[in-house]
């Protein structure tokens, strides 16, 4: 089978927005190897589109020791640096967006404000693949779910600018507990202090803090079985989309038009705050949570 090496060496959200395009490549008879951070291996395999992962973080250290790729696909960005890295591997073909710095490379034009799902679907479609942008669902991993049916509060985000104030997450958590719902707070090991702060302000038991205590597969299982996810614009929001779990996502400064859940799914709600972290209120998030919960059980 022909080998397609795909560069997408970013985070959870970036991987999940590329799933329809990756599956299109796999349906085309390609053996897809994904160049991505090693911690994403289980999630990449879970998509059913990826045969193996080449551990790569960002654009540093991309090394390919296998046979010459039949196809290289740049889903990392618009180039030119990422394009050149792929070209150095001497693939038989390269699929990538056009860039003025590389006039001999033919590809579709980059649209700056395009949704990330549509962006990578359009790339592979331009080269002849059949792709379904709605093909975002993931199977539930076969592992322990630490809190079935809980409300998942995820206050962290890779970039500080994308975070909503922790005290507001805490107020949302208190409101959910007051309605008789179980609440857990998630995050990475690095985000555990933030999660503990939110839990303390919400007067939650320390055992409700799952940040730093779950693997990525366990986090996926948790989100798949959750009653509701409340988060900033980060990877957990994309997991909620993948599992059809009701969600409320506070966006800022990025735009839901580029990273938000599909607009045709009323059990997901994106609230845009722009550059002001306090532009979205606790009351708006709680009301949106109630609304998406009512839609999901209708």
Description:
This protein is of the alpha/beta class and 298 residues long. It folds into two domains: 2-126, Glycogen Phosphorylase B (Rossmann fold, 3-Layer(aba) Sandwich); 151-297, Rossmann fold. The chain is 34% helix and 15% strand. It contains eleven helices and ten strands. It has helices at residues 12-17, 19-27, 41-46, 81-87, 116-126, 166-178, 192-201, 216-224, 235-243, 256-259, 282-297; strands at residues 2-7, 30-36, 52-55, 71-74, 94-95, 151-154, 183-185, 228-232, 247-251, 268-272. The strands form two sheets. The protein has a five-stranded parallel sheet with strand order 3-2-1-4-5, with helices on both faces. It has a five-stranded parallel sheet with strand order 7-6-8-9-10, with helices on both faces. Helix 8 packs across helix 9 (235-243).
Label this structure with key terms.
298 residues, alpha/beta, Rossmann fold, 2 domains, five-stranded parallel sheet, 10 strands, 15% strand, elongated
Oligomer: single chain
Q: Spans of 5+ residues with little confidence (pLDDT < 50)?
A: none
CATH class placement of the largest domain:
Alpha Beta
Shape: elongated
For the record, give the distance between the C-alpha atoms at the N and C termini, rounded to a whole number: 46 Å
The overall pLDDT average reads: 95
Tell me the Rg in angstroms: 20 Å
Please describe the topology of this protein.
Layout: E1 2-7, H1 12-17, H2 19-27, E2 30-36, H3 41-46, E3 52-55, E4 71-74, H4 81-87, E5 94-95, H5 116-126, E6 151-154, H6 166-178, E7 183-185, H7 192-201, H8 216-224, E8 228-232, H9 235-243, E9 247-251, H10 256-259, E10 268-272, H11 282-297
Parallel strand pairs: 1-2, 1-4, 2-3, 4-5, 6-7, 6-8, 8-9, 9-10
Helix pairs in contact: 2-5, 6-7, 6-11, 8-9
């Amino acid at each position: 089978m022909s080998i397609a090496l795909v560069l997408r060496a970013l985070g959870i959200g970036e991987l999940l927005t590329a799933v329809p395009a990756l599956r299109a490549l796999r349906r085309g008879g390609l053996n897809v190897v994904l160049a991505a951070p090693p911690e994403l291996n289980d999630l990449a395999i879970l998509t059913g589109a990826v045969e193996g992962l080449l551990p790569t973080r960002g654009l540093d250290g991309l090394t390919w020791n296998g046979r010459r790729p039949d196809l290289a696909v740049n889903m990392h960005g618009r180039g030119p640096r990422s394009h050149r890295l792929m070209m150095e591997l001497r693939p038989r073909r390269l699929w990538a967006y056009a860039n003025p710095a590389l006039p001999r490379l033919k590809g579709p034009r980059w649209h700056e404000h395009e949704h990330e799902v549509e962006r990578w679907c359009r790339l592979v479609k331009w080269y002849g693949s059949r792709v379904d942008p709605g093909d975002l669902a993931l199977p539930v991993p076969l592992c322990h779910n630490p809190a079935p049916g809980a409300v998942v509060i995820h206050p962290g985000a890779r970039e500080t600018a994308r975070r909503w104030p922790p005290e507001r997450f805490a107020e949302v958590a208190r409101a959910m507990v007051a309605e008789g719902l179980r609440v857990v707070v998630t995050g990475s090991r690095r985000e555990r202090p933030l999660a503990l702060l939110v839990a303390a302000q919400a007067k939650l038991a320390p055992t409700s803090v799952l940040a730093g205590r779950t693997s990525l597969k366990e986090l996926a299982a948790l989100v798949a079985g959750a009653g509701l996810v409340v988060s900033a614009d980060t990877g957990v929001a994309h997991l909620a989309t993948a599992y059809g779990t009701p969600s409320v996502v506070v966006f800022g400064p990025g735009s839901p038009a580029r990273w938000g859940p599909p607009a045709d799914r009323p059990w997901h709600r994106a609230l845009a705050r722009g550059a002001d972290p306090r532009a979205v209120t606790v009351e708006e998030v709680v009301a949106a949570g109630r609304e998406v919960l009512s839609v999901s059980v209708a």
